[in-house]
Amino acid sequence: MAPQLMWIGLGNMGRGMCKNLVEKGNLDKPLIIYNRTKKRSEDLAAKLPKGKTEIVDSIEEGVKKADIIFTIVSNDAAVREAVSSALKGEVKGKLIVECSTIHPDTVEQVAKDVLAKGAEFVASPVFGAPPAADAGQLIFVPAGPKATIDKARPYFKGVMGKAEIPMDDKPYGTSQKLKLIGNSFILNMVSQLGEGLAMAEKTGVGVEPLKEFIDTLFGGVHSGYAQRMVSGTYWKMEEPLFSADNALKDAGHAINLAQSAGMELKNAKTAQGYLKGVAEYAGGSKGDIAGIYGIARQQAGLKYENDA
Ligand SMILES: NC(=O)c1ccc[n+]([C@@H]2O[C@H](COP(=O)([O-])OP(=O)(O)OC[C@H]3O[C@@H](n4cnc5c(N)ncnc54)[C@H](OP(=O)(O)O)[C@@H]3O)[C@@H](O)[C@H]2O)c1
């Protein structure tokens, strides 16, 4: 019999991950889903085939019935809150797989709390934007005891993900350290794209030839983010794909991690400055990371919104 799975957090990432679990996870029971705002659970359940999900009203209610509980929520405070609710009942022998991006110290503390209650824990942040989550193309970075990771592994590669960067038997915080270093690449890339596209416009080159250069030389995530800028998606979309608040959290954690290792993350500080501008102009929970382009435009004397 397959384990009973539960999912906590149906934001941009969680929704796509659940879709892939339901489609490819070989589940023999409905996936239990919980989201703080219930409407998101209802919307997801309506989109997936009938009988494939079971909505619960509280984390405690779902955890009671579940063997493996996945979490992916906004930030450190949200993870602490969700896991502490999960630990309210009897959890001995259950497994919690935490996929959010949080500070390495937070994940170590959360893991301690989980283990103290007799449950098992895997820290597995993920690389990949929401479209990659939808397409089952995420990269998982699981850390913790190998025997524990092996219980979650069947749901990573080939189900929700395309690959793993395994951290078997490594401290939980190691996976978050890699995730933060990796996200500093994303922050820098998005800042570079925003500045470059603003500069292409200001110098009379135009954004289209620069977009062509980006697509031809780099492709992949560079092209994805450049498209979000050139198409105007960064200011037109109702909900951000990667909120300014979440990106600011990542920048802050990465800068803090570098400091604690005795070095300075200068590029991330540039991205942090741009992101503060996005949060101020478009709202922290409404503005998207690609809005860095809008701020680079403003700083060059253009409007935040492009003419797309
Ligand atoms: N977006 C990306 O490109 C990306 C890529 C890789 C990793 N990540 C990481 O994955 C995590 C989720 O990102 P996302 O883009 O899916 O975020 P999101 O769209 O902003 O969704 C956040 C989720 O967290 C829930 N939440 C927030 N505070 C909560 C609390 N106190 N208790 C319970 N639930 C709470 C929200 O519930 P409500 O619906 O009620 O607000 C929502 O389900 C973050 O740690 C992010 O850094 C994001």
From TrEMBL:
The UniProt entry's sequence similarity note says: Belongs to the HIBADH-related family. NP60 subfamily.
Q: Name one Pfam family in it.
A: NAD_binding_11
**Keywords in UniProt for this one?**
NAD, Oxidoreductase
Q: Which InterPro entries match?
A: 6-PGluconate_DH-like_C_sf, 6PGD_dom2, 6PGDH_NADP-bd, HIBADH-like_NADP-bd, HIBADH-related, HIBADH-related_NP60_sf, NAD(P)-bd_dom_sf
Q: Does the keyword Magnesium apply?
A: no
Q: Which residues belong to any copy of the 6-phosphogluconate dehydrogenase NADP-binding domain?
A: 6-158
Under the heading PANTHER family, the entry gives:
6-PHOSPHOGLUCONATE DEHYDROGENASE FAMILY PROTEIN (AFU_ORTHOLOGUE AFUA_2G11600), OXIDOREDUCTASE GLYR1-RELATED
Active site at which residues?
K179
Tell me one GO molecular function of this protein.
Answer: NAD binding
What range(s) does the 3-hydroxyisobutyrate dehydrogenase-like NAD-binding domain occupy?
A: 173-287
Protein's recorded name: Uu.00g018660.m01.CDS01
